[in-house]
């Protein structure tokens, strides 16, 4: 083994390390970790919505999905106009026909804290999530049923 072999090996190792670092960082989302279950992703998304943290809330949404842009703009407007409290009860997972996709059945309650007229509601729905390289992402929601809640009166 000579000096040239050592240099080539060192350069090759540096290139390999750089490649691994770029690959690891390029797919990582800012909040969602690889071990979060679909239910944990939904709960974390709801927590971000309650904090009115747009970037965190959107980090759980599939950025390649057809509804991403409208979801972002609607959420941003919602945060400007209302203060809303969300709660969610995850009822369970429903198997999807598509590989790498799950449907989580939830009951989501939405109540206005401040802002113009708003109908508090409770909705039974599916959150549809797809498995990405490093995390589950919310693709869409499907409302199954809903009801308006009676306004709080003193």
Can you tell me about this structure?
With 154 residues, the protein is of the alpha+beta class. The chain has a single domain (31-148), classed as Nuclear Transport Factor 2, Chain: A (Roll), CATH 3.10.450.50. The chain contains 4 helices and 4 strands. It has helices at residues 3-26, 38-51, 54-58, 68-81, and strands at residues 83-95, 101-114, 121-131, 136-148. Strands 1-2-3-4 form a 4-stranded antiparallel beta sheet, covered by helices on one side. A hairpin with a 5-residue loop joins strand 1 (83-95) and strand 2 (101-114). The longest helix has 24 residues, at 3-26. The radius of gyration is 21 Å and the shape is globular.
Topology (SSEs and partners):
Layout: H1 3-26, H2 38-51, H3 54-58, H4 68-81, E1 83-95, E2 101-114, E3 121-131, E4 136-148
Antiparallel strand pairs: 1-2, 2-3, 3-4
Query: What's the arrangement of strands in the largest beta sheet?
Result: 1-2-3-4
Q: Give the end-to-end Cα distance, rounded to a whole number of Å.
A: 86 Å
Average per-residue pLDDT, rounded, comes to 83
Helix content percent band: 25-40%
List segments where confidence is low: pLDDT < 50 over at least 5 consecutive residues: 10-34
What is the C-alpha radius of gyration, as a whole number of Å? 21 Å
Count of discrete alpha- or pi-helical segments spanning 4 or more residues: 4
């Amino acid at each position: 083994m000579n000096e040239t072999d050592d240099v080539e090996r060192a350069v090759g190792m540096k290139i390999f390390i750089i490649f691994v670092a770029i690959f690891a960082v390029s797919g990582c989302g800012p909040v969602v970790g690889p071990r979060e279950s679909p239910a944990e992703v939904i709960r974390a998304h709801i927590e971000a919505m309650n904090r009115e943290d747009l970037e965190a809330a959107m980090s759980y949404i599939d950025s390649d999905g057809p509804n991403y842009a409208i979801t972002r703009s609607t959420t941003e407007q919602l945060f400007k106009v209302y203060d809303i409290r969300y709660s969610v009860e995850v009822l369970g997972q429903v198997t999807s026909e598509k590989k790498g996709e799950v449907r989580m059945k939830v009951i989501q309650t939405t109540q206005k804290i401040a802002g113009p007229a708003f109908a508090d509601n409770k909705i039974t729905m599916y959150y549809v999530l797809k498995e990405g390289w490093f995390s589950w992402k919310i693709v869409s929601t499907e409302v199954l049923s809903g009801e308006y809640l009676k306004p709080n009166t003193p």
